[in-house]
């Protein structure tokens, strides 16, 4: 199973979520960079670059969810994430 192999390699759900958010940011940077650096090609090419990089985000979010699910079943969910998901007890 791919998720199990990724987990064994040390890739955690937090890493996949970070990659997804980075992809969103890179999408904006790629769009703006293409728009400014390639003056003659116009908006269409800049849009294609932004969309190309932006398409990575859903894949990384999906991997993050799958890894999180595996971590919950395996019992290796990190303390920070576990505390975030569990409501704090009063007192």
Task: Walk me through this protein's architecture.
The chain contains 5 helices and no strands. The chain is elongated, with a radius of gyration of 18 Å. Helix content is 77%, strand content 0%. By secondary structure, the protein is an all-alpha fold. It has one domain (2-73). Helix 2 (13-37) packs antiparallel against helix 4. It has helices at residues 2-8, 13-37, 43-54, 56-74, 79-85.
SS-based class: mainly alpha
Q: Which range best describes the helical content: under 10%, 10-25%, 25-40%, 40-55%, 55-70% or over 70%?
A: over 70%
- Rounded mean pLDDT score: 81
Low-confidence regions: none
Strand elements, count: 0
Rounded to the nearest angstrom, the distance between the terminal CA atoms is 43 Å
Percent of residues in beta strands = under 5%
Q: Largest sheet, if any?
A: none
Query: Compute the gyration radius: what is it?
Result: 18 Å
What number of domains?
1
- General form: elongated
Order of helices and strands: HHHHH
> Tally the helices: what do you get?
5
Keywords: Membrane, Transmembrane, Transmembrane helix
Protein name: DUF2637 domain-containing protein
Transmembrane segments: 16-35
Organism: Streptomyces venetus
Which terms summarize this structure?
5 helices, 91 residues, mainly alpha, 0% strand
Short description:
This protein is mainly alpha-helical and 91 residues long. 77% of the residues lie in helices and 0% in strands. It has helices at 2-8, 13-37, 43-54, 56-74, 79-85.
